[in-house]
């Protein structure tokens, strides 16, 4: 077994590998760029070596720099994590030539499966069902349009060396194909150093289901069940689960056996994932094989009890698998929510900055037997950089069945505190409560079908509004009691807190009567509805954990004028707690109107202007591309919302802009 391994990666996956290596008694070496000097993976590792500037193409994916770090550290093996160099055959060859073990598959398997075009041809030859498409390289945008028309729209334009949703576009017509080809090509070049593109038929209403395989160098190969990865945005997975609520045992076995057959055809050895598109009749088609550890591997670990990182290390050390196919048992259900630094209220645009508050839920086995696990690479006070993937953490839960795993996830998301940046916690919470998601009737089109105008939050129903109103009234009571104590009015201080209040939630006024007591209050609404609230909340806490009529609830809160901003299960609302007379007068207040920005194109995220496609004086049509902004390795095309004439252009290609910086104005 190895004494020391180097992790050629960063963030949560580097931290994840370090945890298993530490448990196995193996020392670890981290590498870091200038931007990651204070990163969590650097703090956790036994050693850390600086490898260059923030940009990945000047640090994390420069093979010579990683090789120099290996020599300096004396590491005997390298775990590549996912992304970066994990599926780069040149890196694997360099390690082999240097006598360093690669904790991943053989070079031949990486070359065969890492190239999406070659892998589809090999899969077809191995008898694996594949999606129709053009498997040869595409020269330019016009050829992409021609081939797309021959295949038949819609089509998927994909980077041959792609992964993680980068270098992928769906085209529904010639214009989409032309634009998508160029954007995919640019993203592929920036993320993988390989801009080759191919096109395949896009299967409508599909499910994305993948099979985890594990193989050694002695000819043994098994599959560890499947993961459902259908909740996606822009081909980027957001929520995963294991097993799939859709597969039956017959389909699971057929997919698993095909995944194993394909792995054996390329002499695979290590952990890997064979991805399939599955239609409504459970017909499945090979999509690609990822010759690395997947982001979503924790859900497989939770339902099988198998540490995939440990198995990868043992296989790389030459050991035989100690697990046979008959040993693999799927126990219970697991969920994974990817917490991203993306603002769901701004069409999931990337957000960067300092984490002024980062407090994940406690990990481990809960009193009811369910499990919470949080894989992360950040910490309270840390910084989210514009140079890397926007993932903050992967929150995972396990329960004996799907419903309990979802309930546990919803409760864990309720107590997950993040401030300082935009993030998708509200969206994740909304999905967990969505009836369609809970039913298991999901496809890769779930987000665009259920949120066609983007995510604007969840509207609180009557019962939830009452809960929030009751909590706000109790917090207001606690704050007032605190003020009376501070002022020295100790005698009969509870009498100094008013009993009658009006809680304003959005356009609704909820009149209530409050009776203070130790650790909470009894609430009676005007229509006679009663609630008994107990909490140990204190002013300044950003999370109120309480019981309402004996049932636990957790809501994120932030003090505001006359009340609080409250976040709960995708709901975000400003709540005011007013005395009845003040509430009556407030109805006559003039509403503040936000500034008119309809004649400006604003930068929706911190990013780099890749191109400006119009000039002052041009007339633009609705939907026309105006500019392209790159952020966190993804290109975003900004389009005209209506027909207009460009008055001025305030930015140019190469400019780095902040959120809401003016790119151009219209007449």
Folded structure, characterized:
By secondary structure, the protein is α+β, with helices and mostly antiparallel strands. The protein has 5 domains: 4-103, 3-Layer(aba) Sandwich (Rossmann fold); 132-201, ATP-grasp fold, A domain (Dna Ligase, domain 1, 2-Layer Sandwich), CATH 3.30.1490; 342-457, D-amino Acid Aminotransferase, Chain A, domain 1, CATH 3.30.470.20; 462-586, Glycoprotein, Type 4 Pilin, CATH 3.30.700.30; 600-666, Beta Barrel (OB fold (Dihydrolipoamide Acetyltransferase, E2P)), CATH 2.40.50. It is built from 17 helices and 40 strands. Strands 14-13-10-11-12-15-23-21-20 form a 9-stranded antiparallel sheet. It is globular and about 80 Å long. The mean pLDDT is 92.
List the helices and strands and how they pair.
Elements: E1 4-7, H1 11-23, E2 27-33, H2 40-44, E3 47-52, H3 63-73, E4 77-79, H4 89-97, E5 101-102, H5 107-114, H6 116-125, E6 133-134, H7 141-151, E7 155-163, E8 166-171, H8 174-192, E9 197-201, E10 207-215, E11 221-233, E12 236-242, H9 249-265, E13 270-278, E14 284-290, H10 297-304, H11 308-316, E15 333-340, E16 342-343, E17 349-350, E18 353-354, E19 357-359, E20 364-365, E21 371-376, E22 383-384, E23 391-399, H12 402-414, E24 417-419, H13 425-432, H14 435-439, H15 446-450, H16 462-486, E25 500-505, E26 508-517, E27 520-525, E28 530-535, E29 543-548, E30 551-560, E31 563-568, E32 571-578, H17 580-586, E33 600-602, E34 607-612, E35 619-620, E36 625-631, E37 634-639, E38 644-649, E39 656-657, E40 662-666
Parallel strand pairs: 1-2, 1-4, 2-3, 4-5
Antiparallel strand pairs: 6-9, 7-8, 7-9, 10-11, 10-13, 11-12, 12-15, 13-14, 15-23, 16-17, 18-22, 19-24, 20-21, 21-23, 25-26, 25-32, 26-27, 27-28, 28-29, 29-30, 30-31, 31-32, 33-40, 34-36, 34-39, 35-38, 36-37, 38-40
Helix pairs in contact: 4-5, 5-6, 7-8, 12-13
